């Protein structure tokens, strides 16, 4: 029997990213994803999936920026993020925004 290695959890932070000219960023060394809070629900889901792909497969974009290998890897990550978000959205996965002190709905 092989031991499972416990993976480090991913932290998702919502931060204005206007200065970075990006919808989201992934930091593989910190296991951190930053997403611009101004995005709509569908675009935020797509961005989250895209950045998760960066964390899961960092070797795809581990090349110098603007190199052909980087662009090819970024295109693959983009396709994966869009496909995953499209499937999740079609299965009615949505982000539910609640008031700060509201109780979550009880699911039975």
Walk me through this protein's architecture:
This protein is α+β, with helices and mostly antiparallel strands. The protein has one domain. Helix content is 36%, strand content 11%. The chain has a 3-stranded mixed beta sheet with strand order 1-3-2, with helices on one face. A hairpin with a 4-residue loop joins strand 2 (24-27) and strand 3. Helix 1 (41-56) crosses helix 2. The longest helix is centred in the C-terminal third of the chain and has 23 residues, at 68-90. The protein is globular.
Short description:
The chain has two helices and three strands. With about 110 residues, the protein is an alpha+beta fold.
Widest sheet, order of strands:
1-3-2
Low-confidence stretches: none
Radius of gyration over all CA atoms, rounded? 16 Å
Number of helices, counting only DSSP H or I runs of 4 residues or more: 2
The average pLDDT value, as a whole number, equals: 87
The main sheet comes to:
3 strands, mixed
**What structural class should be given to the helix and strand makeup?**
alpha+beta
């Amino acid at each position: 029997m092989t031991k499972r290695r416990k993976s480090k959890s991913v932290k998702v932070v919502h931060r204005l990213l206007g200065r970075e000219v990006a919808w989201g960023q992934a930091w593989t060394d910190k296991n951190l994803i930053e997403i611009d809070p101004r995005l709509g629900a569908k675009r935020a889901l797509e961005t989250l999936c895209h950045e998760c792909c960066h964390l899961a497969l960092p070797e795809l974009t581990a090349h110098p920026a603007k190199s052909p290998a980087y662009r090819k890897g970024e295109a693959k990550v983009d396709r994966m993020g869009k496909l995953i978000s499209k499937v999740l959205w079609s299965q009615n996965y949505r982000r539910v925004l609640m008031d700060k002190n509201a109780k979550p709905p009880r699911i039975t």
